[in-house]
Amino acid sequence: MYINVCYRRKDVSENVPDNVVLLYQVGRGPCAPSSSPFPLKLETFLRMYKIPYVNDHSGQFSSKGKTPWIKYNGVAVADSEFCIEFLKRERNIDKEKISPFLKATGRALQKLTEENLYW
């Protein structure tokens, strides 16, 4: 179940049920994901693992001064990669049967893309 609603109010965090991710990201189209790669990565992860989430496009930045970031059951996490790792631990979904070689290859490609091909 996706709870993909765009909020622009500051009190949105009071309306999010338990076990639903509150995803803070820059604005996007009503039917299209963000054109920024890091919110796109995080939102794609949420959709792939069918994690319910609510978008907040109020422009609120994380403690690091960046977006995207999340709140999950009262815990704020900044940086898309930290958010994904946190959700994997919290929801116990890192049970992929992938060989260490394939995990390493995927990690290398991820870092190449995010650090060297971005912009």
UniProtKB/TrEMBL annotation:
All copies of domain Thioredoxin-like fold, residue ranges: 37-119
Family annotation (Pfam families): GST_N_4
InterPro entries: Mito_Protein_Transport_Metaxin, Thioredoxin-like_fold
Cellular-component GO terms for this entry: cytoplasm
Protein name: Thioredoxin-like fold domain-containing protein
